Amino acid sequence: MKVAELIELLQMENPDAEVHFSYNYGDHWRTQVAPTVDSVDVGYVKYSDYHRMHKIVDDEDFDCDEETGEPIVEGQEVVVLG
Length: 82
What we know:
mainly beta
């Protein structure tokens, strides 16, 4: 989903409603849990064969360009809801 699509969908909702995100807790009963969203950040993700989905890029995956000092990151820049 793109940010523009999320904005469009959220415009149809009650602006005073709390925002949660859901995921499978991984227990025996496959419980769907829904913690609140309390942060919106820009981050980086890359595909993990082990998890079979994207994962947040760890600090050790960052490097710096020696000439510019700009970060070099193996991954895709995304908006992360947490």
